[in-house]
Amino acid sequence: MKINKFIKKGLWTGLIIMVLFFAILLFHIITAKPAVYESPNLQVSRIDFKTDIDSLQARQICSDLRSIKGLTSDSIIVKRNVVVYFHNNRITNSQKVYSELMAKRHYEAKRYILPENLVNKEVCPVNQNSLSYQWSQKINRFFN
To answer: What pLDDT, on a 0 to 100 scale, did the predictor assign at position 125?
Structure first.
């Protein structure tokens, strides 16, 4: 008899917790504002350095890049001898960023320029005609 009451209390407690979690999730979905991205204005660029970049140089390069207007400060990636950064192409372009970076310090680096055969190539790896892509877009539009 006591085991039966214990199981009932456990089930009721579990049900109440699930209902609360569902209510919190529903409240979050209803009140959350969709993220606003400046996708059409965001561009990725790259600078190739002649030597590998150590951690001290990486911090210095990131600091110099963050001081340039138009760069998204949280999107600077430094790996070995390559720096990849994102910038708003309405404010600046990769040539201006490269020139400003070189004016701050003399780095042995060159701006990466995309080869002609890749300039007009589509870069999105997602098949936009696939069922999974279309389904995820519908779900995204529903919640946003």
So the answer is: 66
